[in-house]
Specification:
Layout (H helix, E strand, L loop, with lengths): L6 H4 L5 H14 L12 H8 L3 H13 L3 E4 L5 E4 L4 H14 L4 H22 L2 H19 L7 H18 L3 H24 L3 H24 L2 H19 L15
Antiparallel strand pairs: 1-2
Helix pairs in contact: 2-4, 5-9, 6-8, 6-9, 6-10, 6-11, 7-8, 7-10, 8-9, 10-11
């Protein structure tokens, strides 16, 4: 089969700045350059790569956009290596979800797959500190319910609830699951806030609060006992139940973009 005559036009050769950014990025992700390290001066890097200052600064802009470096200008300026925050990935991932028209039901369906899996892994691998932190997070929710402030200060309740979810994802021992949970957190938090604002049945809200506390407390006990299968089953049931309350009516059909407008 003959190759199209214009195939060379379809493949864009990387710009010099991109190649420089690739080299520096490789050193950062491999740990050759660590967080807090200062890169050589512009004069040294220009000489090292054999490029102009504008080309080097374009490479810096690429790495800055990825939150891999921070450029400090002025007489005491310089370029420092930094570690990208999860919020950066969350922002980009959130935009992708919005632009693809992803529904809230779609997002929650994914969570119902990976959170129970993380719950099982956590129960198999949990340390004493993990168990203690889970119990403390459940206890914080218990206090809010017993004092009757959960409904009045939903922001505090929401933060405490998501702390428990975060612990499951963070302590499961799988970095990929941890990051997936983190990047979806903003979407889920915004949705949960909207749902609770739209519920007017205070008795039903209090009932859900108490059920959540019982579930979290029982889950912490299962993790302490190393009951992995039971922990997964309990958390899957909790996710199903929570999903029914969070996606009632037409809420599940709404797209992620609806939360950001």
């Amino acid at each position: 089969m003959s190759r199209p005559k214009n195939v060379s036009r379809l493949v864009r050769a990387p710009k010099t700045a991109e190649l420089i950014a690739d080299q520096l990025r490789s050193q950062i992700v491999r740990g050759v350059l660590k967080e807090g390290d200062a890169l050589p001066t512009e004069v040294e890097l220009v000489k090292q790569f054999g490029v102009s200052r504008p080309t080097l600064r374009e490479a810096f802009r690429i790495l800055e956009s990825e939150s891999l470096i921070v450029v400090r200008r002025g007489s005491r300026g310089g370029v420092l290596v930094c570690s990208p925050e999860t919020s950066v990935a969350a922002r980009h991932f959130g935009l992708l979800l919005q632009m693809s028209g992803t529904t809230l039901a779609d997002v929650y369906e994914a969570r119902k797959v990976f959170e129970p899996a993380a719950a099982e892994m956590l129960a198999r691998r949990a340390t004493r500190d993990d168990v203690a932190d889970l119990k403390a997070a459940a206890a914080a929710l218990t206090v809010l319910v017993e004092e009757g402030t959960a409904g009045a200060d939903f922001a505090e309740w929401s933060a405490a609830t998501f702390r428990f979810h975060d612990l499951i994802m963070e302590r499961a021992g799988n970095k990929t699951l941890m990051l997936v949970g983190a990047v979806l957190r903003d979407v889920v938090t915004r949705h949960m806030t909207r749902v609770m604002r739209s519920v007017t049945d205070q008795a039903e809200i209090e009932k859900q609060f108490k059920r959540t506390v019982r579930t979290f407390t029982k889950f912490a006990t299962l993790v302490e006992d190393g009951a992995a299968d039971e922990a997964r089953t309990l958390w899957a049931a909790h996710m199903d139940r929570a999903g029914r309350s969070m996606l009632w009516g037409d809420l599940g059909k709404k797209t992620v973009v609806d939360l950001f407008v």
